[in-house]
Sequence to fold (856 residues):
Amino acid sequence: MIFRNIYYLDESFAVRRGCVAARGDTIEYVGDSVPGGDFGEVIDGAARLLLPGLINAHCHVPMTLLRGYGEGLPLDRWLNERVFPFEDRIGGEDAYWGALVGIAEMLAGGVTSFSDMYDHCDRIAEAVRISGIKANLARGIVAFGEDGLYGSSRHEESLRLLEKWHGAEGGRILVETALHSEYMTNERTVREMAEFCAARGLRAYTHLSETKKEHDECVERRGVTPARYFEDLGFFDIPVTVAHCTHVTGEDIAILEKHGVSVVHCPESNLKLGSGVAPVAQMLAGGVNVALGTDGASSNNNLNRFEEMHAAGMIHRGVARNPELTPAAQVVRMATQNGAAAQGRADTGVIKAGFKADFAVLNLGKPHLTPVHDVMSDIVFAAQAGDVEMTVVDGRIVYRDGEFLLFDAREAMEKAAKSAARIAGELE
Amino acid sequence: MIFRNIYYLDESFAVRRGCVAARGDTIEYVGDSVPGGDFGEVIDGAARLLLPGLINAHCHVPMTLLRGYGEGLPLDRWLNERVFPFEDRIGGEDAYWGALVGIAEMLAGGVTSFSDMYDHCDRIAEAVRISGIKANLARGIVAFGEDGLYGSSRHEESLRLLEKWHGAEGGRILVETALHSEYMTNERTVREMAEFCAARGLRAYTHLSETKKEHDECVERRGVTPARYFEDLGFFDIPVTVAHCTHVTGEDIAILEKHGVSVVHCPESNLKLGSGVAPVAQMLAGGVNVALGTDGASSNNNLNRFEEMHAAGMIHRGVARNPELTPAAQVVRMATQNGAAAQGRADTGVIKAGFKADFAVLNLGKPHLTPVHDVMSDIVFAAQAGDVEMTVVDGRIVYRDGEFLLFDAREAMEKAAKSAARIAGELE
Fold:
C-alpha cells in the first residue's frame, strides 16, 4: 500500500507531509517524493495523519467482560466481592469472546499491538490470531509458601504457550513470562523465573508498586522496596517490563534505569481505583523507558489509547502545577516507540523504512481537530479514538471505517454480552 | 418526535427502558407505554441511550481558533507571548467562524447548551442563532483604577447585547453579565454590577480562584479570599456562577453554599495549565451546585464533555486515593442537571414531561460499550463524544450521523482554519 500526500510522524517524531509506502509487511519508503513501482492500494491522505500503530503495553483483555462491574466500590470490596468471584466463572469461551471484543475496541482506536497477562492465554492467542492484531501474551505466575516455579501448573501452562504460540503468525504473537507481583510470589520463584528467562532468552513482566499499601507492606515485610527486592533476586538482569510504578521511590527509579526496565504507566486505572499518580516526570527525567497501558477495562473502563494519552499529558502537569511537564511529543512516543521497546519489538513503533507497516490513520477533518496549529498537541489533547479510520498491522488493513476486515465483531459483541450477563446473573 | 424502546435516564437519573415523546419543543411523555397521537418522527431506540442534553457551563468558544497554539509553555509566557497577541488580532468574522466550529464540535458531542464569556458576543450570538444550540452569553467586564461599571465600553456592549439577544429565539439565547475576575476589577465595579443585576433580574458570572497565585495575591492585597471579597461586596446576593474554584478554602465553600453560587469545574483545563485540582468532593459534600465546563479549546484542547466527565470522575479518586468519590451518577448530573442550574435554566437538564426536549442520543452498539453492566459507569468512563449520533435542541434535530442540519460545518471549518492561519502568520 502507498499513502500519498499525507501527514505523518517521521522517525524523529517530527510532523511531515509526504509519502509512505509499504510492500508486504514492511515499510519500504518514507519521504517527499513518490517512489515508482506497484505498491497495491493507493490511499490519498488529504486531511489524514499517519501515526505509528499505538501500543497498549499493559492489559488484561478478557476483563473486558467486567467493564463497569462493581463500579465505585472500595478496592478490597471491588476485588473480593466482585472481580474475583466473576473471574472464577470465566471459562475459555467467555475469555475468547471477551478478548475479541477488547481487541475490536483496540483496533478501532488505532492499537496495533498489546501486552497481556491473564488466564486462558491459549484462547486469547486464538483471538489475536484471527483478528490480525499483535500481542505479547503471558500467564501470570503466583506462588505461595515455599513453592517454586518448576512444576507449578501455571508454569506448565506457560511452557505449552511458549511451544504453541511464541513467534507464531510471523512473530505477530510473542509469549512472555510473568510474575503477578512481589506480594503474590516468593524469592525462590523469582530467582527461578530469572534463570528460566535468561536460559531461554525470554522477556518477563510484573506489576510493581501499584498501590501504596502493597509498596509499604513489602518494605515492612522484607525491609526493601519491591523494586529493590526484584533487583536483589536477579529478576532485573533479564529484559523486564513492569506495570504501574505508582509509588516507586527515587532509588527505585535509579534501579529501573540502571537495568533498562521498561515501565508501563496506566494513569486512568491508577486514578479510577484510587491508587494515586505515578512519578512519571521523574521517571522520564531519570532516563527510564516509560510506555502507556490501559490496564483491564474493569478499572479504566475502556481500552482507549487517546484518552490514556490525554490523561498522561494532563495529570502530571496539574498535580505538580507545572504545564511544561510531559510535552505532547513525549506522550506520543510513550504510546508508540516506548511501547514497542517495552514489548521487545525492535521493528515497530516508528514510521521508518525497514520497520513493520503498523499504522493508525487519523481523520483530521473534524470540528474538534480544527484549526491545526500543532499536530502533536492535537493527537494528545484533542483527538478521540473514534477519529481513527484505518488500522494497519504488518501491512494488512485490519480495520477501516467502522468495519473489522478479518472477523465478525458483531458476533463477538453478542457472545461477550451473553457471557457477561450469564456470569453476573450467577453471582446475583 | 417519539423515541420508542430506548434506554433513558429518568428524572431521578435512574436508567430505564421505555418511551420518550416530545411535541414541539417540549417533552410530553416519559414512561413505559407508548402514548397515542402523532408525534412526527418515530425513532427506534434499540441499543440507544437517551441522555439529557449535556451542558458546557464554562467556555470561551471563539478561542477554538487557538486550539494547540503555544502548547507546553509556562502559563505567563503562554498568555503574554501567545494568547493575548493572538486574541488582539481576532476580528468579528474570525470570532464568528471560530465560534461556529466550536459549536459544531459541541453539537457533535451531545452538548445542547453552553455558557460563554468572551469578546465579539454579538457574532457569537449569531453563530448560536443559526446553529440551533442554546447559550448563555456574557461580555466579561474588566475595570482598573477607580473606573466604575456605568459608561465603560464593555458595559455599553453588554447593554446592547441584552437588548438585542436576551431571550431571543424563544429563550434559546440568554445574556448574562460577567466580571472577568477579582484581579481584573475593583470594588466599585463589583458593587455596581451587583446592583445592576439585582435591578434587572440578571445572572452574573466570574472566574474564581483559578490559580494559587491569584488566590494568594488576593489574600495578600485585600486580606480576604476572592470568595469572601465578592461576598462582602454583595456580588453573591444575585444569582452567580463562578468558574474553576481550583484553590477555594473550606470557608470559601461555605460562602458559595450559603449564597447558592454555582461552581463550574473545569478539570482538564486546570490540569493542562498546571493550575491544580479543585476540591470538588468537598464542594459536593458541602452542598454546592457543581457543574462541568471545558473552558476554551486553547487550554483543554477540545470541547468534549465525555472526556470532561471522564476526568471529573477519575481525578478526585486518584488524588485523594479514594475510589468512592464522585460516583458516576453524580458526574452525569454535574454534566446535565447541575449545568442547567448554573445557567438559570429551570426547564432543561432532565428528561421529564414539561421540560424542553434537549437530548443527546448515544449509540451503545460499539465494542468499547460492550458488555453493559452499568450504564452510568459506561457514560462517564467508557463512552466517547463520537458515540453521540443525534443531538436534539428544543425538539429540533440539529445533528445526526455526522451531519449538521442547520448550517454548513465544512464552510465553518475552512473559514476558521483560514482565520487561525492568518493570525498565526501575522505573529510569526
The domain at 54-342 of chain B is CATH 3.20.20.140 (TIM Barrel). Residues 135 and 173 of chain B are 5 Å apart (CA to CA).
